[in-house]
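Here is one such tokenized protein:
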Amino acid sequence: MTLFNLLFFAIAALIVASTALAITRRNLVHAVIYLVFGFFGSAFLFYLFGSPFLAALMVIVYAGAIMILFLFIIMMLRVEAPEERLFPPRQMLPAVFFAAAYVAIGGLLLINDPSAAAPLTEARTEPAAFGRYIFTQSWLAVEIASLLLLVAIIGALQVGKRPVKEGEE
């Protein structure tokens, strides 16, 4: 079994474990943090499979933008957090474990990657050409994504709306 096979199984186990922790947490902020660990693991898998651009997009889009959106929704819903310390020890131990494991695996990936020292070729395009490509070749995906975002915003507004008390309008 090669080092890359071991890294793959280690990353896959960390993704499954962090996702399991995300769906079993009572505190929604902790669940989002564990989900971010799962997204970082997926980014490591993309990098391991030879796609550093997709790994970067995974971190930027999912671990960054989507999780910030989830945190805003959690704050907008005003979910009451259980009365406990900010980070109790039983929550800190898994978080520190996942962080240390991801740092170790990321270091191994960077050290053992034979193409890490090779310079990257520059790829440039004009925004107009990119927009023309997206809206002519992938217009259906753009429309579906915009419809899903619209439904998500309407749903978040409906869920976050305070109930009207009797006698008030």
Notes: The radius of gyration is 21 Å.
